[in-house]
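A reminder from the course coordinator: this example appears on the midterm review sheet, so study it carefully.

Given structure:
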């Protein structure tokens, strides 16, 4: 299996540090607001990796953190903590804010069929460990205290280590970008980042430390929790490309300073989702939450879109490519998913014959090859659609398939469609509890339509079809009766 290592900017053969065990750390959400499409992409990307590594036989310890303290308004050095701010404005305990949005995040992830991680540590639950990590950086000589706050000395670190090796930035560029801020703060240099911030009197979230009553900087939590649960060196660290600088660059610096070596062997970053070429953001007026996608309650959406449509839309593009969102693109993904679901349903109904007259061999190998090539999910999907033509040929009575070939084909589709791509292949979006009654009601209406057609009552037949179509059903007449999907 080859994966693209952001650190080396090349595809590399993935060789775990301690096979068959794999340690994987992914930057999770900051829980001060509802999840949006930008949260869905890394969640689905690394869920795909988690599923595929598990399929290959690895025992994966998947750690996805929860940032519930230390994510500040500007650059993690200035401003008010976002969760503390929301708690103050809404007169809530900070952990009430965290729990409310974390519950909603988990609900959205479950809807997207994102598997839960092995461990989901909170930053607020690891304050002692973060303080101890800062002490190690102090002992190594790369931290300094100023007015009760602690900062990382980037310039001193850069003399001993390669600062900027992940993002490609260097000290000169940082100085050019931040020179207007020199002298305005308590730091030696404006590009030094906070390891610990002294809390102001009105600050809600704070803890005692050797330096002050305060709270940790944003970057520190991932270095601390990654090494706590995965060791001083682990296999994979993932996240969105927007985290490469400063967050992940700061992580590398902190870990090297405290431990004397890199912690992460393979860095992986998914690319961004844009809307009409612009980055998604509240300031642009194009910020769409996952709940709004599921309910259709946003002016940029033509209709509601199911969680599986969102997942399929994201998997249709390679994780390292930019994806430009539009309602039209989602409608196209919805149609593609419906075709996949219809073919999956037809595959389950095929009956074996003595021999195969349609070539269905080699699908497993082609899909494995695509997945092993840096998780190339769009190529896997294209291979599945290629095989759909053979399945439909057999279903329509224009070919046959042997029992051996049928079992192999059904097994490959289940493996890649459901187990690896994580797509739920139900033909409607109802819960299991209501599915039988729901399906029965639709079947009853379509049976009534068949009776009307037999009696040549075209008015009644067309009325039933048109009403169901208006409600979002796809109706297809077949030689045996009908097929439908939502």
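Designed residues:
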């Amino acid at each position: 299996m080859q994966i693209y290592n952001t650190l080396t900017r090349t595809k590399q053969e993935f060789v775990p540090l301690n096979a068959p065990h794999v340690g994987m750390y992914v930057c999770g959400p900051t829980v001060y607001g509802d999840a949006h499409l930008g949260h869905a992409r890394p969640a689905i990307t690394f869920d795909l990796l988690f599923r595929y590594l598990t399929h290959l036989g690895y025992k994966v310890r998947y750690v996805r953190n929860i940032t519930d303290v230390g994510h500040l308004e500007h650059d993690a050095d200035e401003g008010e903590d976002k969760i503390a701010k929301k708690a103050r404005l809404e007169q809530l305990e900070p952990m009430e804010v965290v729990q409310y949005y974390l519950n909603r995040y988990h609900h959205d992830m479950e809807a997207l069929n994102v598997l839960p991680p092995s461990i989901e540590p909170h930053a607020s639950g690891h304050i002692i460990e973060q303080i101890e990590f800062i002490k190690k950086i102090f002992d190594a000589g790369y931290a300094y205290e100023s007015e009760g706050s602690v900062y990382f000395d980037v310039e001193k670190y850069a003399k001993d280590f390669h600062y900027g090796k992940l993002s490609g930035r260097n000290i000169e560029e940082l100085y050019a970008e931040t020179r207007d801020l020199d002298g305005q703060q308590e730091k030696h240099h404006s590009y030094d980042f906070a390891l610990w911030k002294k809390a102001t009197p009105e600050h809600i979230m704070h803890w005692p430390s050797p330096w002050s009553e305060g709270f940790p900087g944003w970057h520190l939590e991932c270095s601390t929790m990654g090494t706590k649960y995965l060791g001083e060196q682990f296999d994979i660290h993932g996240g969105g490309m927007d985290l490469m600088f400063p967050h992940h660059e700061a992580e590398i610096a902190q870990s090297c300073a405290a431990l004397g070596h890199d912690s992460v062997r393979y860095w992986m970053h998914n690319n961004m989702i844009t809307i009409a070429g612009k980055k998604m953001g509240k300031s642009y007026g194009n910020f769409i939450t996952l709940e709004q996608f599921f309910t259709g309650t946003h002016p940029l959406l033509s209709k509601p879109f199911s969680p599986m449509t969102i997942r399929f839309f994201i998997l249709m593009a390679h994780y390292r490519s930019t994806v430009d969102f539009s309602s039209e693109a989602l409608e196209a993904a919805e149609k593609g998913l419906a075709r996949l679901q219809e073919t999956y349903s037809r595959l389950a109904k095929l009956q074996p014959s003595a021999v195969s007259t349609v070539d269905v061999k080699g699908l497993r190998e082609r899909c494995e090859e695509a997945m092993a090539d840096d998780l190339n999910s769009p190529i896997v999907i294209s291979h599945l659609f290629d095989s759909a033509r053979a399945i439909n040929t057999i279903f329509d009575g224009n070919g046959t398939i042997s029992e051996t070939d049928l079992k192999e084909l059904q097994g490959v589709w289940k493996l890649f469609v459901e187990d690896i791509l994580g797509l739920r292949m139900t033909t409607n979006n109802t819960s299991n509890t209501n599915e039988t009654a729901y399906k029965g009601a639709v079947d009853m209406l379509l049976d009534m339509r068949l009776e009307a057609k037999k009696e040549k009552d075209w008015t009644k037949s067309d009325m039933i079809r048109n009403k169901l179509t208006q409600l979002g059903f796809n109706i297809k007449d077949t030689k045996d009766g009908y097929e439908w999907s939502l």
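Residues 26 and 64 are 5 Å apart (CA to CA). The two ends are 37 Å apart (CA to CA).
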